[in-house]
Amino acid sequence: MEYRTTREPDDIDLILRLHFEGYQNLDWRFESDCLDAFLVHVQDTLAEVNLDDRQSNRIWFAEESGETLGCAGLLKRGTKGQLRWVVSLPKARGLGIGKQLVQQALNFARDLGLEEVFLDTIDGIDASMSLYNSMGFVVESNSTEQMWFGAGSAITMTIPLQKGRPTCADRDDKC
Protein backbone atom coordinates (compact mmCIF):
# COMPACT_ATOMS: atom_id res chain seq x y z
CA MET A 1 0.00 0.00 0.00
CA GLU A 2 1.25 3.45 -0.87
CA TYR A 3 0.05 6.72 0.64
CA ARG A 4 0.04 9.75 -1.64
CA THR A 5 -0.09 13.34 -0.38
CA THR A 6 0.75 15.13 -3.62
CA ARG A 7 -2.13 17.09 -5.10
CA GLU A 8 -3.56 16.01 -8.43
CA PRO A 9 -6.05 18.01 -10.54
CA ASP A 10 -8.88 15.50 -10.09
CA ASP A 11 -8.48 14.98 -6.31
CA ILE A 12 -11.79 16.70 -5.44
CA ASP A 13 -13.66 14.38 -7.81
CA LEU A 14 -11.72 11.43 -6.39
CA ILE A 15 -12.70 12.32 -2.81
CA LEU A 16 -16.35 12.62 -3.86
CA ARG A 17 -16.20 9.26 -5.67
CA LEU A 18 -14.64 7.60 -2.61
CA HIS A 19 -17.40 8.99 -0.42
CA PHE A 20 -20.06 7.84 -2.89
CA GLU A 21 -18.67 4.31 -3.08
CA GLY A 22 -17.72 4.15 0.58
CA TYR A 23 -21.03 5.26 2.01
CA GLN A 24 -23.69 4.32 -0.51
CA ASN A 25 -26.32 2.04 0.99
CA LEU A 26 -24.62 2.08 4.41
CA ASP A 27 -28.05 2.93 5.81
CA TRP A 28 -31.04 5.07 4.83
CA ARG A 29 -29.05 8.30 5.38
CA PHE A 30 -26.82 7.32 2.45
CA GLU A 31 -29.40 6.13 -0.07
CA SER A 32 -30.98 7.87 -3.04
CA ASP A 33 -31.69 11.58 -2.45
CA CYS A 34 -29.99 11.50 0.94
CA LEU A 35 -26.78 10.26 -0.69
CA ASP A 36 -26.93 13.10 -3.20
CA ALA A 37 -27.38 15.61 -0.36
CA PHE A 38 -24.49 13.99 1.54
CA LEU A 39 -22.19 14.40 -1.49
CA VAL A 40 -23.19 18.08 -1.77
CA HIS A 41 -22.29 18.42 1.91
CA VAL A 42 -18.87 16.80 1.30
CA GLN A 43 -18.28 19.05 -1.72
CA ASP A 44 -19.19 22.12 0.36
CA THR A 45 -16.69 21.14 3.07
CA LEU A 46 -13.98 20.67 0.45
CA ALA A 47 -14.72 24.09 -1.07
CA GLU A 48 -14.30 25.88 2.26
CA VAL A 49 -10.55 25.18 2.59
CA ASN A 50 -7.44 25.80 0.53
CA LEU A 51 -6.18 22.29 -0.12
CA ASP A 52 -3.15 23.67 -1.93
CA ASP A 53 -1.88 25.11 1.38
CA ARG A 54 0.14 22.00 2.25
CA GLN A 55 1.72 23.73 5.26
CA SER A 56 -1.67 23.73 7.02
CA ASN A 57 -3.84 21.22 5.18
CA ARG A 58 -3.13 17.80 3.76
CA ILE A 59 -4.98 14.84 2.28
CA TRP A 60 -3.67 11.29 2.16
CA PHE A 61 -4.80 8.78 -0.45
CA ALA A 62 -4.29 5.05 0.07
CA GLU A 63 -3.38 3.52 -3.28
CA GLU A 64 -2.60 0.01 -4.40
CA SER A 65 -1.90 -1.14 -7.95
CA GLY A 66 -3.08 2.18 -9.33
CA GLU A 67 -6.41 2.10 -7.48
CA THR A 68 -7.34 4.54 -4.73
CA LEU A 69 -8.90 2.68 -1.80
CA GLY A 70 -9.39 5.46 0.76
CA CYS A 71 -8.52 8.92 1.94
CA ALA A 72 -8.30 11.17 4.99
CA GLY A 73 -7.51 14.84 5.45
CA LEU A 74 -6.21 17.09 8.20
CA LEU A 75 -6.90 20.81 8.38
CA LYS A 76 -5.10 23.21 10.71
CA ARG A 77 -7.64 25.16 12.75
CA GLY A 78 -5.58 27.49 14.95
CA THR A 79 -3.91 25.34 17.63
CA LYS A 80 -6.06 22.32 16.75
CA GLY A 81 -6.32 20.00 13.79
CA GLN A 82 -9.54 18.82 12.19
CA LEU A 83 -9.70 15.31 10.77
CA ARG A 84 -11.88 15.27 7.65
CA TRP A 85 -12.99 13.03 4.79
CA VAL A 86 -11.98 9.68 6.31
CA VAL A 87 -13.33 6.93 4.08
CA SER A 88 -12.28 3.59 2.69
CA LEU A 89 -13.94 1.52 0.02
CA PRO A 90 -15.93 -1.49 1.26
CA LYS A 91 -13.54 -3.96 -0.41
CA ALA A 92 -10.61 -2.39 1.49
CA ARG A 93 -12.16 -2.44 4.95
CA GLY A 94 -10.47 -4.54 7.59
CA LEU A 95 -7.03 -4.07 6.01
CA GLY A 96 -5.92 -1.30 8.38
CA ILE A 97 -6.11 1.41 5.73
CA GLY A 98 -8.32 3.70 7.81
CA LYS A 99 -6.06 3.37 10.83
CA GLN A 100 -2.97 4.11 8.75
CA LEU A 101 -4.60 7.16 7.14
CA VAL A 102 -5.69 8.56 10.51
CA GLN A 103 -2.27 7.84 12.02
CA GLN A 104 -0.56 9.77 9.24
CA ALA A 105 -2.92 12.70 9.84
CA LEU A 106 -2.14 12.61 13.58
CA ASN A 107 1.60 12.53 12.86
CA PHE A 108 1.22 15.54 10.57
CA ALA A 109 -0.69 17.37 13.31
CA ARG A 110 2.15 16.64 15.74
CA ASP A 111 4.66 17.90 13.18
CA LEU A 112 2.64 21.13 13.03
CA GLY A 113 2.84 21.40 16.84
CA LEU A 114 -0.94 21.21 17.29
CA GLU A 115 -2.43 20.58 20.74
CA GLU A 116 -5.23 18.25 19.71
CA VAL A 117 -7.18 16.88 16.78
CA PHE A 118 -10.96 16.84 16.57
CA LEU A 119 -13.43 15.28 14.18
CA ASP A 120 -17.14 15.49 13.56
CA THR A 121 -19.15 12.39 12.80
CA ILE A 122 -22.65 10.98 13.18
CA ASP A 123 -24.09 8.07 15.10
CA GLY A 124 -24.57 4.66 13.55
CA ILE A 125 -21.27 4.37 11.69
CA ASP A 126 -19.95 1.65 13.95
CA ALA A 127 -16.73 0.83 12.08
CA SER A 128 -15.63 4.48 12.15
CA MET A 129 -16.50 4.87 15.83
CA SER A 130 -14.56 1.69 16.63
CA LEU A 131 -11.53 3.00 14.74
CA TYR A 132 -11.62 6.41 16.42
CA ASN A 133 -12.10 4.90 19.88
CA SER A 134 -9.25 2.43 19.36
CA MET A 135 -6.91 5.29 18.43
CA GLY A 136 -7.72 7.29 21.56
CA PHE A 137 -10.39 9.72 20.39
CA VAL A 138 -13.06 10.48 23.00
CA VAL A 139 -16.54 11.94 22.58
CA GLU A 140 -16.56 15.60 23.57
CA SER A 141 -20.14 16.34 22.56
CA ASN A 142 -23.19 14.63 21.17
CA SER A 143 -26.07 16.86 20.14
CA THR A 144 -29.04 16.81 17.81
CA GLU A 145 -28.50 19.01 14.76
CA GLN A 146 -29.96 19.53 11.33
CA MET A 147 -27.98 17.58 8.72
CA TRP A 148 -28.27 16.54 5.09
CA PHE A 149 -30.79 13.82 6.03
CA GLY A 150 -32.74 15.81 8.63
CA ALA A 151 -32.24 15.98 12.39
CA GLY A 152 -29.56 13.65 13.68
CA SER A 153 -26.91 13.02 16.26
CA ALA A 154 -23.80 15.15 15.64
CA ILE A 155 -20.78 13.80 17.51
CA THR A 156 -17.52 15.65 18.08
CA MET A 157 -14.52 13.60 19.17
CA THR A 158 -11.05 14.77 20.21
CA ILE A 159 -7.63 13.35 20.88
CA PRO A 160 -4.89 15.28 22.69
CA LEU A 161 -1.50 15.25 21.04
CA GLN A 162 1.25 14.47 23.50
CA LYS A 163 4.34 16.60 23.39
CA GLY A 164 7.57 14.69 22.93
CA ARG A 165 6.08 11.82 20.91
CA PRO A 166 7.97 10.94 17.73
CA THR A 167 7.02 12.93 14.64
CA CYS A 168 7.16 11.76 11.03
CA ALA A 169 10.66 13.23 10.72
CA ASP A 170 11.83 11.11 13.68
CA ARG A 171 10.37 7.81 12.50
CA ASP A 172 12.04 5.20 10.33
CA ASP A 173 8.97 4.63 8.15
CA LYS A 174 8.62 8.39 7.44
CA CYS A 175 4.86 8.00 7.87
* Secondary-structure element pattern, one letter each: EHHEEEHEHEE
* Major pleated sheet: 7 strands, mixed
How confident overall, as mean pLDDT? 92
Overall shape: globular
Question: What is the CA-atom radius of gyration, in angstroms?
Answer: 16 Å
Structural class: alpha+beta
| Contiguous helical run count | 4
Oligomeric status of the shown chains?
Answer: single chain
Instruction: Report strand %.
Output: 25-35%
The number of strands is 7
Strand order of the largest sheet: 1-2-3-4-5-7-6
For the record, give the distance between the C-alpha atoms at the N and C termini, rounded to a whole number.
12 Å
List low-pLDDT spans. none
- Helical proportion, percent range: 25-40%
Descriptive terms for the model:
175 residues; alpha+beta; 7-stranded mixed β-sheet; 4 helices; 7 strands; 30% helix; 34% strand
What does this structure look like?
Helix 1 (about 10-25) runs antiparallel to helix 2 (about 30-45). The chain is built from four helices and seven strands; from the N terminus they run E-H-H-E-E-E-H-E-H-E-E. About 30% of the residues lie in helices and about 35% in strands. By secondary structure, the protein is of the alpha+beta class. The protein starts with a strand and ends in a 15-residue tail after the last strand. Strand 3 and strand 4 form a beta hairpin. The mean pLDDT is about 90. The protein has helices at about 10-25, 30-45, 95-110, 125-135, and strands spanning about 1-5, 55-65, 65-75, 80-90, 115-120, 140-145, 150-160. It has a seven-stranded mixed beta sheet with strand order 1-2-3-4-5-7-6, with helices on both faces.
